[in-house]
């Protein structure tokens, strides 16, 4: 694994998506400036797993091979239902328009534990802080 700068060694580390290919596709959207938000099923967060994001925290995003690729800083966090996600948020995720976002995310949630239109999502906005050398 690439050596992380000292200030990020204890950071939360995660990859977008549920496959190496999707991780790389979504990471590319971040690096291009098209993706400045993400969401996950609220039930996917637990004491044993990935902690809830916190405004101001800096996390390390991994690429599809598990290598540290970028540092993101959380700028906003909110909980909303899947069917309440608006067009602006879908665009910020880089996966809009809204109807496309809904199709892709419904399929993702069905693959990863289940889907319901009223399921609660943790929606996070972030900014790219640093691109890491891979």
Q: Say how many strands there are.
A: 5
Oligomer: single chain
Low-pLDDT parts are: none
Helix share, percent: 10-25%
Mean pLDDT metric = 94
Helix/strand order, N-terminal first: EHEEEHHE
Spatial gap, N to C terminus = 9 Å
Description:
With 134 residues, this protein is an alpha+beta fold. It is 24% helix and 28% strand. The chain has a five-stranded mixed sheet. A hairpin with a 5-residue loop joins strand 3 (58-62) and strand 4.
Summarize this structure briefly.
The chain is α+β, with helices and mostly antiparallel strands.
Defining key terms:
134 residues; alpha+beta; five-stranded mixed sheet; 28% strand; globular
Give the helices and strands, then pairings:
Blueprint: E1 13-14, H1 20-31, E2 37-41, E3 58-62, E4 68-81, H2 87-92, H3 98-111, E5 120-131
Parallel strand pairs: 1-3
Antiparallel strand pairs: 2-5, 3-4, 4-5
